[in-house]
């Protein structure tokens, strides 16, 4: 789960990280009022879960409250990478003397959180890593011991030669690490970390990604989820305990297991079709999940054929068959459906389906070919 | 022969009285696995299915039964502690089925288990099966058959699909291992490839990877430099968009890294067979067995 910049800043600010004053606005009026309260030049920043906000015109400097109102009016409602901007952060502008980068990512290779800092901040850190890797210090942290003071100082001195600034930065590293661990992050980033004209080290932007597996035990973080910033069908699916990702194609896929779901999408492509979605109904065999899955798939108007691919292990295929029958009785299908079932209780499932006028196959390739043919307007192979 | 488990494996089940634990404990017993004990705090002294003794702690279970292996079905928030408890009790092989374990928990668990000298498989994995001998986890026994092919995969149902195709074509397996779909897991592809290379009964290895991370690329490098046995690989997620978590916590393309194309190129560079779809494994394996 991603959280917004302003939410990440709130978390860091509470831990003591120096961050310019700022408030969230959903209307131009609010933006103007906030700018007036701040009483200096402000920056109006789009709050969306997308990178490249600046390039897309979603970050603007405003010299007066009136200007803040105009900028907010322009940014609110704007589309950035397909997402509509519903909120802007209005925050005091800073005079930047130098920009650095500080971040922590959960690294698969070292199996640890890894600090990355670079005095070359403000730009894409992946680009710095590719072109000038010597400008990045990477420091894996053993979470059993935490970030030790000497490590924090090493990070601070990598960014600044000056002792006061290095100390200020090392304190921010400790606070960033605390935020990372307390919020259950997979990523936490301050980019840029700046030194202003007065010599203060300040976090100008913040980004946090949360490990979804943490949300059950961190309700205060789970509450930060902004459903208005997500694809509605994905929110619907999550609330029904399904893993769903919308794609651009027209073959709606419903599969059990993430690996098989990906392999099914790939096979759709292999046979010349395009998958409309990734959908994993998971391991439990609950007919209600199938009902929800069908509702979500069919709510996408671009879906021209539906493909079920179920390999019954823990999942009982008769439960899936019952789910399909129940769902289609409630809401008759407007597009053709192709069903592939094999494994646990396959014979019972096939019987249920044929009694209700469905045909099913036990062969994955055959089913995928047929679904692709139906979706592309041809006849079933 | 086989890797990691065989007829002699003595297993305890952590979470044996829970919904998933009890269901799969029965399935494993029916398959022929030696289930010598179970652990559920507060239920020590009971018998599971009238025969298997239940203990309050893993230490007590190990002491009483002489178990060498454990399988874990406890809820995600307790999984880290359960794994460390097993390592602390001296178990040598720990299979964690639980899905949804916070990755930060695994940053503590992984070094702890490593230092104890135990092997961890998972979490978020289907476990493993040595057909005809023993199964630990949830892989359906009837889709497998004994034979000369080693199988290792990051997925559950995709593994079933490939194993089912192989078995239908008359090709059996030495051991099928699901290493799990999480970003930090105890056993990786290389650990399994190394074990299959040493196992005299394994003649060909099938490897099912997916997008995200660099495990498959590292495995390809291992195949190239350290394996004599042929390996056939497959990557799921060729149509996955970047930046999205595809069900498995570890199945995510970050920036331009971890794509299917990158992994398939690594397989090809290592001289591996590449299956474009699950069905292709059958012909590619047949050609390498002869």
Characterization of the model:
The complex is a heterodimer of chains A (381) and B (290). Chain A has helices at 5-14, 28-38, 65-75, 125-131, 149-159, 163-183, 219-222, 232-239, 258-270, 287-298, 317-330, 346-355, 364-375; strands spanning 2-3, 22-25, 42-46, 59-62, 79-80, 83-84, 88-92, 96-107, 112-118, 137-140, 185-196, 201-203, 206-210, 243-246, 251-255, 277-280, 305-312, 337-343, 360-361. By secondary structure, chain A is of the alpha+beta class. Chain A has three domains: 21-92, ATP-grasp fold, A domain (Dna Ligase, domain 1), CATH 3.30.1490.20; 96-222, D-amino Acid Aminotransferase, Chain A, domain 1, CATH 3.30.470; 231-376, Succinyl-CoA synthetase domains (Rossmann fold). In chain A, helix 2 runs antiparallel to helix 3 (65-75), helix 5 (149-159) crosses helix 6 and helix 10 crosses helix 11 (317-330). Chain A is elongated and about 80 Å long. Chain B is an alpha/beta fold. In chain B, the strands form two sheets. Chain B has a seven-stranded mixed beta sheet with strand order 3-4-2-1-5-6-7, with helices on both faces. In chain B, strands 9-8-11-10-12-13-14 form a seven-stranded mixed beta sheet, with helices on both faces. In chain B, helix 4 links the parallel strand 6 (93-96) and strand 7. Chain B is globular, with a radius of gyration of 18 Å. The chains are: A alpha+beta (381), B alpha/beta (290). The interface between A and B is large, with 50 and 58 residues.
């Amino acid at each position: 789960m991603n959280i917004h910049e302003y939410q990440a800043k709130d978390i860091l600010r509470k831990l003591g990280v120096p961050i310019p004053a700022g408030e969230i606005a959903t209307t131009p009026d609010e933006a103007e009022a906030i700018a007036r309260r701040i009483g200096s030049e402000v920056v109006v920043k789009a709050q969306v879960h997308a990178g490249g906000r600046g390039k897309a015109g979603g970050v603007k400097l405003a010299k007066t409250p009136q200007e803040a109102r105009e900028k907010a009016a322009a940014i609110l409602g704007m589309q950035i990478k397909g997402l509509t901007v519903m909120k802007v952060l209005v925050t005091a502008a800073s005079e930047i003397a130098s920009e650095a980068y500080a971040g922590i990512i959960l690294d698969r290779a070292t199996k640890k959180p890894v600090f990355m800092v670079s005095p070359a901040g403000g730009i894409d850190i992946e680009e710095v890593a590719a072109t000038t890797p010597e400008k990045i210090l990477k420091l894996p942290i053993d979470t059993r011991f935490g970030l030790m003071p000497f490590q924090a100082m090493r990070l601070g001195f990598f960014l600044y030669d000056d002792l006061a600034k290095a100390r200020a930065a090392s304190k921010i590293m400790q606070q960033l690490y605390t935020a990372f661990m307390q919020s259950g992050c997979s990523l936490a980033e301050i980019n840029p970390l700046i030194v202003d004209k007065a010599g203060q080290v300040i976090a100008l932007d913040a980004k946090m990604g949360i490990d979804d597996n943490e949300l059950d035990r961190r309700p205060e973080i789970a509450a930060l989820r902004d459903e208005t910033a997500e694809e509605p069908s994905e929110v619907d699916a999550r609330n029904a305990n399904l893993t769903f990702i919308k794609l651009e194609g027209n073959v709606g896929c419903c599969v059990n297991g993430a690996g098989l779901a990906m392999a099914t999408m790939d096979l759709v492509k292999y046979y010349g079709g395009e998958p409309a979605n990734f959908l994993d109904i998971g391991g439990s065999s609950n007919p209600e999940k199938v009902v929800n899955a069908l509702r979500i798939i069919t709510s996408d108007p671009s879906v021209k054929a539906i493909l079920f691919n179920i390999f019954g292990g823990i999942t009982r295929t008769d439960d899936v068959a019952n789910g399909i029958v129940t769902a289609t009785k409630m809401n008759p299908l407007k597009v053709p459906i192709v069903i592939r079932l094999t494994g646990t209780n396959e014979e019972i499932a096939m019987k249920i389906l044929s009694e209700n006028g469905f045909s099913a196959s036990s062969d994955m390739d055959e089913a995928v070919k047929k679904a692709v043919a139906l979706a592309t307007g041809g006849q079933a192979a | 022969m086989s890797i990691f488990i065989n007829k002699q494996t003595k297993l305890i089940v952590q979470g044996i009285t829970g919904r998933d634990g009890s269901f799969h404990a029965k399935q494993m017993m029916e398959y022929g696995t030696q289930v010598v004990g179970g652990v559920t705090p507060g239920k020590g002294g009971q018998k599971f299915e009238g025969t298997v003794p239940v203990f309050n702690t893993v230490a007590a279970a190990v002491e009483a039964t002489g178990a060498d292996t454990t399988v874990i079905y406890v809820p995600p928030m307790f999984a880290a502690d359960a794994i460390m408890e097993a390592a602390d009790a001296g178990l040598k092989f720990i299979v964690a089925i639980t899905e949804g374990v916070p990755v930060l928990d695994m940053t503590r668990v992984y070094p702890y288990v490593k230092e104890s000298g135990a092997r961890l498989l998972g979490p978020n994995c289907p476990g493993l099966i040595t057909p005809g001998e023993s199964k630990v986890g949830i892989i359906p026994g009837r889709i497998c058959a004994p034979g000369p092919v080693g199988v290792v995969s990051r997925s559950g149902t995709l593994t079933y699909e490939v194993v089912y195709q192989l078995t239908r074509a008359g090709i059996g397996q030495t051991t099928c291992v699901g290493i799990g779909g999480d970003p930090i897991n105890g056993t990786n592809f290389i650990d399994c490839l190394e074990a299959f290379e040493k196992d005299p009964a394994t003649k060909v290895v099938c490897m099912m990877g997916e997008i995200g991370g660099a495990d498959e690329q590292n495995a390809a490098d291992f195949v190239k430099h350290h394996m004599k046995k042929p390996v056939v690989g497959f990557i799921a997620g060729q149509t996955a968009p970047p930046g999205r978590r595809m069900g498995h916590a570890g199945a995510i393309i970050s920036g331009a890294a971890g794509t299917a194309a990158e992994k398939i190129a690594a397989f090809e560079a290592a001289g591996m067979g590449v299956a474009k779809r699950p069905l292709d494994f059958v012909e590619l394996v047949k050609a390498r067995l002869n």
